[in-house]
Backbone:
C-alpha cells in the first residue's frame, strides 16, 4: 500500500461532510461491492457523514443479495445532477469519465474534489488523488488493503462484500493476477467470516431467458484470423443486433458474463469478442484473451479500455456497418 496516498485519502474523507460514491454503468459485483464497502467504512469512521451512492443506470435485481443498501443506490443523470452540495466524490472501479457517467458526451464535474481508486489499465480520470493498482484483481482488493491500513474492523458483512468483488472480477477465481497472494487474501476474508456460500449461490444463478440468450450467442460464434503486433492470431467472435437481442426481454445484457465464461476458454483461439447492440446504434464490445494477447490495446483503438485479458468498448453507428469497422480494426491491430 502506498502509505502516503492511503493517509491522504483518509484525511480527505475525514474533512468531507457530504460524499458521493459511484457505481459504474453495467454495474458488476466489484463496482457495487466496492461502493457499499466504502460507504460502510466511512460510516464506521464517522457516523455523521452523509454518503450517497449514485449510478447512471438502474441496478439489476440480481445484486440484492449484497444487502438492503443496494436499494438506496440512487440513479442519476450526470448531466443534470446538482453536485454543489457534495464536497467529495469517490470514484471506484472506473478508468474514464464515461465509465462513471454512462455517456461519452457527459463529463465529470470539475468543481468537486475527486478521489479515484481503480485497477484498470490507463486510468484517464482527472482527480485530486489517484490510487491505481493495475495488478489488483479487483477494486475490492485495493480497498481491502486500504481498510487494513486504516485499521478498520472488518466484520462478516464487509468481508463478504470484498470477497464478492474479487469473485466477480476473477470470474470465480479463474483470473487471478497474483495467484499466491490473492488466494491468501481470500483465506483472510474467509477467516473474517465472509459468506462464501451466499456469493456462490448468487453467482451461479441465471434466468431461463439469459441461458437462451447465452445459447444464441454461442451458436453465432465464428473463428477468424488477424494480426496482433505483427503476429498471426486467431479469434472467435459473434454479434447480435438490437432487434435480435430485444426478443430475449432481458433487463441487463449479461454480455460480459457470456464473454467471461467462454471466450478465452476456446482452445483454437488467442482471443475473442462479442458485439451486442444494446440500444439502437449503440454497440457494446467485450474482449477476452489468453495470457499473451493484450486486448485492452485493441479496445483502446475502438475508444474503450480495460485490462490486458479482459476489455471493453462502446461504439456508435449503424449495426452492420459498425460490425465491419470493428472487424477491420481487430484484424489489423
Ligand atoms: Mn473491477
Residues:
Amino acid at each position: 500500500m502506498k502509505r502516503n496516498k492511503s493517509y491522504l485519502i483518509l484525511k480527505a474523507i475525514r474533512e468531507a461532510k457530504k460524499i458521493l460514491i459511484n457505481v459504474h454503468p453495467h454495474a458488476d459485483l466489484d463496482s457495487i461491492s466496492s461502493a457499499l464497502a466504502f460507504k460502510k467504512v466511512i460510516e464506521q469512521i464517522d457516523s455523521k457523514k452523509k454518503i450517497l451512492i449514485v449510478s447512471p443506470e438502474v441496478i439489476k435485481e440480481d445484486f440484492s443479495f449484497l444487502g438492503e443498501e443496494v436499494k438506496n443506490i440512487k440513479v442519476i443523470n450526470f448531466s443534470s445532477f446538482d453536485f454543489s452540495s457534495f464536497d467529495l466524490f469517490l470514484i471506484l472501479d472506473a478508468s474514464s469519465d464515461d465509465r462513471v457517467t454512462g455517456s461519452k458526451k457527459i463529463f465529470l464535474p470539475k468543481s468537486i474534489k475527486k478521489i479515484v481508486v481503480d485497477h484498470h489499465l490507463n486510468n484517464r480520470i482527472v482527480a485530486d488523488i489517484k490510487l491505481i493498482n493495475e495488478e489488483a484483481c479487483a477494486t475490492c482488493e485495493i480497498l481491502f488493503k486500504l481498510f487494513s491500513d486504516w485499521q478498520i474492523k472488518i466484520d462478516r458483512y464487509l468481508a463478504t462484500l470484498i470477497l464478492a468483488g474479487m469473485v466477480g472480477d476473477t470470474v470465480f477465481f479463474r483470473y487471478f493476477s497474483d495467484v499466491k497472494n490473492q488466494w491468501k487474501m481470500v483465506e483472510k476474508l474467509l477467516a473474517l467470516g465472509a459468506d462464501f456460500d451466499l456469493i456462490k449461490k448468487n453467482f451461479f444463478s441465471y434466468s431461463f431467458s439469459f441461458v437462451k440468450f447465452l445459447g444464441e450467442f454461442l451458436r453465432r460464434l465464428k473463428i477468424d484470423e488477424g494480426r496482433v503486433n505483427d503476429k498471426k492470431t486467431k479469434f472467435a467472435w459473434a454479434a447480435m443486433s438490437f432487434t435480435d437481442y430485444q426478443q430475449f426481454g432481458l433487463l441487463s445484457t449479461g454480455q460480459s458474463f457470456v464473454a467471461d465464461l467462454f471466450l478465452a476458454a476456446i482452445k483454437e483461439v488467442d482471443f475473442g469478442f462479442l458485439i451486442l447492440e444494446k440500444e439502437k446504434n449503440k454497440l457494446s464490445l467485450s474482449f477476452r484473451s489468453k495470457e499473451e494477447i493484450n486486448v485492452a490495446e485493441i479496445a483502446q483503438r475502438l475508444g474503450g479500455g480495460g485490462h490486458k485479458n479482459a476489455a471493453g468498448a462502446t461504439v456508435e453507428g449503424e449495426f452492420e456497418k459498425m460490425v465491419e469497422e470493428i472487424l477491420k480494426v481487430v484484424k489489423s491491430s
In short: DSSP finds twelve helices and twelve strands in the chain.
